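Known limitations

C-alpha cells in this collection are predictions and should be treated as such. Users comparing against experimental data should check residue numbering before alignment. To illustrate the layout, the record for Protein tyrosine phosphatase is reproduced below. The input appears on top and the generated C-alpha cells appear beneath it.
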Amino acid sequence: MTIGRKDTLITSRSAAQQRMVPMQGVSNCRDLGGYTGKDGRLVKWGMLYRSAELSELSEQDIKQLHAIGIRTICDLRDRDEISAMPTPALSAVTNINIPLIPADNGPVVRQAYDLGDTNKRAHLDRFGPPDQLLVHLNQAMIQSTQALQAIFKLLLQDHSTPFLFHCTAGKDRTGLIAALILMALGVSKETIMQDYLLTNQYLDTAKIAAKSRSTMQAQADVPEEIMQDIMKAVMEARPEYLNAALDQMLEQYEDIEHYLTQAIGLSAEEIVKLQNKLLS
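Generated C-alpha cells:
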C-alpha cells in the first residue's frame, strides 16, 4: 500500500541542517517545508514548524519566533507538563493546548521526565522491554481522534499559519502530528520517517537526561543499568515507534484518506483546502 508518492529523501546532514531554526533555549525546532507532496507540489517553507518544549525561550529566541511570523502555537502536552515547564506569553501569538494522550490511557511514560514519577515507573514491567513503552504510547495516540480533529481544524483556520506544534521533546506526540499532516499533504512515508528520525540529530538529550535524573535522585528502586536502557529508549526516535502508530492506523482504516475522513472526521473538501494552503 502506498502512502503519498516516492520522492527525494533527506540524503545528507547538510540538507537536514537547513531545516533547523537556530534557538538558544529550545532544541529540535525545525521547518517542515520543502518536502514533495501531492502532484509534485512542495510543502511551503515557513508555514509548519515542530519543536521541543518552549519554557526556556531566551529573548533572542522570542525575537526569532516573531521574525519567522509564528501566529499559532499548538501545545500537545498534558496540564502537569505545562505547569512544570510553561511556555512564556508571546505577543500576537495564540497558544492553544490540545493534549494528545487519551485521558483514560492510564499511567504512561510520555517523556524522560516521567521516569521521576514512582507511580508511573511502577507500571514499567507490564510493557516488557523499554522500547515497548513508546510503542504503546504511539498506538494509544492514534485513538485520540477528537484531539487530532481539533488540531487539524485549528491548522485549517484562516490566519493560523505560520503554525508551530510541540510536546516536551518534540519527538513522539509532535512526530505523530508531523506525520499525519505530511501524509495528508501527500508526502511519502519514506520521507516522513526520515523527518521523524532527525530528532536524533537535534534533540538536546543531555539536557533532558540531566533534568530527568535530578528528579530521581532520591529514588533507588530501579537498577542503574535498567534505568539507562529505559532513558535511552524514551529519548530516542526509533522507526518502530512511529511505525507502531501508522501500522495500527492502516490496519484499522486501510489508508490515510480513510483515517482522516472516517476517524478524524475531516471532509474531502477540508483535505483539499489543507493541501492548497500548505503546498506550493
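For this record: The chain has a mean pLDDT of 85. The CA atoms of residues 173 and 243 lie 13 Å apart. Please report discrepancies through the issue tracker.
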